[in-house]
């Protein structure tokens, strides 16, 4: 299971991590520690990267 692999990656790095990912085009979902309260930090970068990807797919940045 992907969540188990993520836990091993975090443990190998000597830390604990939380992640929640939803597939915007389908029902896919990966969640590890998604019920824990965390500081959001730089999560806005995901929206910026998604917009950049969408503009690139539309040929805005050629």
Pick out the low-confidence regions. Answer: none
**Mean model confidence by pLDDT:** 88
Q: Order the strands across the largest sheet as they lie in space.
A: 1-2
**Per the principal axes of the C-alpha atoms, what is the gross shape?**
elongated
Provide the β-strand percentage band.
5-15%
Give the CA-CA distance, first to last residue.
Answer: 38 Å
Folded structure, characterized:
By secondary structure, the chain is an alpha+beta fold. 40% of the residues lie in helices and 13% in strands. The chain is built from two helices and two strands; from the N terminus they run αββα. It has helices spanning 2-12, 44-57, and strands at 19-22, 29-32. A two-stranded antiparallel ribbon has the order 1-2.
Question: What keywords describe this structure?
Answer:
2 strands, 62 residues, alpha+beta, 13% strand
Brief summary of the model shown:
This protein is about 40% helix and about 15% strand. The chain is α+β, with helices and mostly antiparallel strands. A hairpin with a 6-residue loop joins strand 1 and strand 2 (about 30).
Topology readout:
Layout: H1 2-12, E1 19-22, E2 29-32, H2 44-57
Antiparallel strand pairs: 1-2
